[in-house]
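Page 37, continued from 36.
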């Protein structure tokens, strides 16, 4: 996909300007170098994942009898746990191979396998209850319910309240104080992006949108 975009940009540049042949050669060489670097990076990352899976598989192969399996889903907002029942080692290995992105942890003492799945979305509970607002310290915060209940899910960054008071109309300030209802990832990213402009330190690394 990256090679395709690079090649597309190359063709666009050539259409807009006529380049001498030595320049074309240099651009093609750069494209090949970028492709090789990407391939090398992927090759280095692959053994880590394969090694982790191999270790889990070897441990499972040594275990006799069924194991309790649990799936823990970690969302951008919220978490959920779901028991998958009791499975034999072979079934668990097949499940891991079908979902290589899942993290697996074996607890031999409890005869359990814990899978963890990361999901770039909000849980159903968060979609029904999430608000963004300001906590007592002036931080932009995600709440489970309205801010006055103070059930903090996560804190993002400190806001420059004085700058906001001089820049935003009163109704916008009141809305943030009461809490902005967040129903989905689009609203989550929109509010996060909007108020990152009011971070107390513009050069700090504020949290970026999830996608």
């Amino acid at each position: 996909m990256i090679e395709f975009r690079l090649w597309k940009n190359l063709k666009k540049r050539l259409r807009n300007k006529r380049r001498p042949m030595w320049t074309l050669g240099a651009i093609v060489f750069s494209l090949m170098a970028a492709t090789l670097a990407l391939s090398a990076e992927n090759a280095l990352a692959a053994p880590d994942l394969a090694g982790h899976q191999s270790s889990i598989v070897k441990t499972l192969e040594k275990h006799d009898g069924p194991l309790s399996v649990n799936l823990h889903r970690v969302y951008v907002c919220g978490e959920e746990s779901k028991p998958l029942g009791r499975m034999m080692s072979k079934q668990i290995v097949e499940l891991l191979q079908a979902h290589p992105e899942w993290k697996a942890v074996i607890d031999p003492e409890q005869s359990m396998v814990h899978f963890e799945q990361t999901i770039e979305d909000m849980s159903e509970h968060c979609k029904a209850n999430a608000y963004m607002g300001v906590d007592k310290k002036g931080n932009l915060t995600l709440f489970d319910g309205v801010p006055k209940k103070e059930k903090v899910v996560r804190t993002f960054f400190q806001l420059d309240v004085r700058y906001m008071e001089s820049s935003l109309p009163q109704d916008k300030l009141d809305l943030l104080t009461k809490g902005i209802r967040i129903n989905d990832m689009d609203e989550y990213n929109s509010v996060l992006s909007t108020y990152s402009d009011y971070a107390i330190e513009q050069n700090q690394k504020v949290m970026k949108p999830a996608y």
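The beta strands are 67-77, 79-87, 103-107, 112-122, 130-134, 139-144, 152-158, 180-181. Flag for discussion at group meeting. Helices lie at 2-16, 21-61, 89-98, 124-129, 161-167, 170-178, 185-196.
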